[in-house]
Amino acid sequence: MQEEILYTIKLEDWSESEGLVPELLGAFECDFSSFEDRESRKFFHTLYFPTPEERDAILPGVMQAIKEWKEFGADLEFCGAGEVKKSEWAEAWKKYFKPIEISDRLVILPSWEKTEVKPGQKVLTLDPGMSFGTGQHATTLFCFKMIDRLSCEDGINTMLDAGCGSGILAIAAGLLGYKKVDAFDFDPDAVSVAKENLSLNGQEWITPTVGDAAEYAGSPEKYDLVCANILGHLLIAFSGNISRWVKDGKYLALAGILNADFDSVSRCYCEKGFEEIERFTLREWTSGLFRKVR
Question: Which domains does the chain have, with CATH numbers?
Fold first, then answer.
């Protein structure tokens, strides 16, 4: 049986902001991985495609993005198109994903790792496959902390994971006691991976679906907490729909926002009846917690 091949586009990244390019690459709606050379502090990004035709079709767009993203601070160089055995890729990236302790109540553990946990600490076992979302990104960490903290507040029982990726936030909400959890992503492959990870963590009762923030309706009863880890310009563009997901008096966690864009996002949601409760900045990313007040 012939081994499965993935077709690739490789990029070198000399940007000062280490998390900028992975966030921008999400615009291509394809699988990718990002690794760091710790000696040179240089990052390498690889985009993966199931056929050479799909890779070659998107290559001109990547070359154009290298030029256009310079205004955002991205310093990229095209390293070539190639191919890799899927088995080789699968083993190579695992060494970059280690256990992450979110709090005394929750730790994220790769499925191939073992670690001791604290008494009462929930273990989120994750095999993210080729879908973005291991919990290491600054914006994801913020959402984790909000899910964890608000789960201890009376009346916070329902949660929506908007742009669920590997399903990591939905799983955390299930483990921490939320009674109803919904999740969606525009990428069918991400939804498939999310379902596998939910099953791995005994959270099959949560069923992620394919959808996008422009049209997703959500539960008629709305949610006590909505986590929307989406790029800032999309949060603004879809703010009318996103706002409708949140119950009056309840919470919206917005992430995926570059520092320079956060004030614009905050103003947009405050105009739609929210108040900013707090904001959190880590490196080039700012995230915020909002409450719906009208």
Answer: 5-93 (3.30.70.260), 138-292 (3.40.50.150)
